[in-house]
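dumping this here so i dont lose it again. seq + smiles for MTE
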Amino acid sequence: MLIRTKKRNPESEITDPALFKKRRQIIKASAAAMVASLNLPVIPSAQAASRVKIAKFTRGSPYSLQQSPTDYEDITRYNNFYEFGTGKEDPAHNAQSFKTRPWTIRIEGEVEKPAVVGIEDLISGQALEERVYRLRCVEAWSMVIPWIGFPLASLLRRARPTSRARYVQFTTLYDPEQMPGQRIPTLQWPYVEGLRIDEAMHPLTILALGLYGELLPNQNGAPLRLVIPWKYGFKSIKSIVKIRLTEQMPPTSWNLAAPNEYGFYANVNPDVSHPRWSQKRERVIGGGLFNPKRETELFNGYTDEVGKMYRDMDLRRFF
Ligand SMILES: Nc1nc2c(c(=O)[nH]1)N[C@H]1C(S)=C(S)[C@@H](COP(=O)(O)O)O[C@H]1N2
Ligand SMILES: [Mo]
């Protein structure tokens, strides 16, 4: 997102409908099968690259949007995941053999009950909700994604944050053998991100385990990634192994790389431009052959839900 100065070819951002038509039919069929199989146990993924349905989740989060989601093919082939390459189509190719089992997430720092949580426990134990969000990136493109996940707050509460916990830091797996991008210093590895504690506890902040009714494809951050729909895409850290509650504001990868371009907050804001491009409009991925753009909304349209957390802040200064 920062390093690449090469102009993107707009053609490459358009999904060839003929190529993906067949697969789309398969998805429709699997959606029907999913409804029929509600409450069956989750099938563990033996092979990371295979598509695995999540059988257990409750539908209809109050935060779901009415608009229809972006096509599965666009969501899973147009990604940012620098551990697997800096090109938008690199992660879909390079993350196929990434091993996401066994996988644990450590919760530590300012908590009364530090914990090591297994991914299978999260998949089978949490009440999973379907939440359809717009995810927006700093390059000003957007998608509507039917995530399957649960509020981060429910996991944090289990660890009993202390009164000193003011921030939460997230860390991605560090494994250069599996993640070829970590062998080159495009960013400082491992990828880290952070939230203020009130942002982390907000019900719109979710840990996603899946999308389109299936476990997350590797390129989208398997087995567990953050989704913060009112912030730019880079806050939504992928393949999380550690969650640490802290007293001090933690460092974040893009802020470390370019502090004048990427702040800690990264709230979607059409009135605060990135130093090198406007953020007033966004390209709608999969929106059609003419690369339609739409007006970007403050907080990505979630002002009613999240605006009060920033009421007394100068959003130009705290960008
Ligand atoms: N570990 C890690 N997490 C990451 C990134 C990354 O490079 N590494 N890229 C971020 C950026 S810039 C974006 S836009 C989103 C993209 O998520 P998606 O591919 O599921 O759309 O992931 C974010 N999370
Ligand atoms: Mo991004």
